[in-house]
């Protein structure tokens, strides 16, 4: 089980786990629950550069289509092909097997991210 307090979060309901200068990014269980059953995921290409706030992908569910935003500026060093092949992983294990992309980033660029307490407050305590 992932320690949710060790993650950083965005107002767009993404979580970020840092391992050195590599950030693993996914959507929160709150977002996955609001989306409903995820049926399609489009992710950026490995080796592409992304800028913080830029739309880098799409998540489609039985209820709606949502955009995936880059929470940080960096280079895509990995995508989770397993969720592209089986999007339901996002619902089943959003903090584990349902991760989406890995970015190589400058970690000093993370000051805008939320801690767990701030994210829970953002969601009205529902996260």
TrEMBL record:
Keyword DNA repair recorded: no
InterPro entries for the chain: 2-oxoA_DH_lipoyl-BS (IPR003016), Biotin_lipoyl (IPR000089), GCV_H (IPR002930), GCV_H/Fam206 (IPR033753), GCV_H_sub (IPR017453), Single_hybrid_motif (IPR011053)
Name of one Pfam family that matches: GCV_H
Keyword tags: Lipoyl
Coiled coil ranges: none
Every Lipoyl-binding domain range: 22-104
Cofactor stoichiometry and binding remark: Binds 1 lipoyl cofactor covalently.
Residues annotated with N6-lipoyllysine modification: 63
Cofactor: (R)-lipoate
Family as reported in the entry's similarity comment: Belongs to the GcvH family.
Function (record text): The glycine cleavage system catalyzes the degradation of glycine. The H protein shuttles the methylamine group of glycine from the P protein to the T protein.
NCBIfam families, per the entry: gcvH, PRK01202.1
Subunit: The glycine cleavage system is composed of four proteins: P, T, L and H.
Protein name, UniProt field: Glycine cleavage system H protein
Species this chain originates from: Microbacterium terregens
The organism's taxonomic lineage, starting at the top: Bacteria, Bacillati, Actinomycetota, Actinomycetes, Micrococcales
């Amino acid at each position: 089980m992932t320690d949710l307090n060790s993650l950083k979060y965005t107002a767009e309901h993404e979580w970020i786990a840092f391992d050195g200068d590599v950030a693993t990014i996914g959507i929160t269980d709150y977002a996955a629950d609001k989306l409903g059953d995820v049926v399609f995921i489009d992710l950026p290409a490995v080796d592409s550069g992304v800028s913080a706030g830029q739309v880098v992908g799409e998540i489609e569910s039985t209820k709606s289509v949502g955009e995936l935003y880059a929470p940080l500026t960096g280079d895509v060093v990995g995508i989770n092909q397993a969720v592209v092949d089986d999007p339901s992983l996002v619902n089943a294990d959003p903090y584990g097997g349902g991760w989406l992309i890995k970015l190589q980033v400058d970690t000093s660029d993370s000051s805008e991210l939320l801690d767990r307490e701030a994210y829970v407050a953002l969601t009205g305590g529902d996260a």
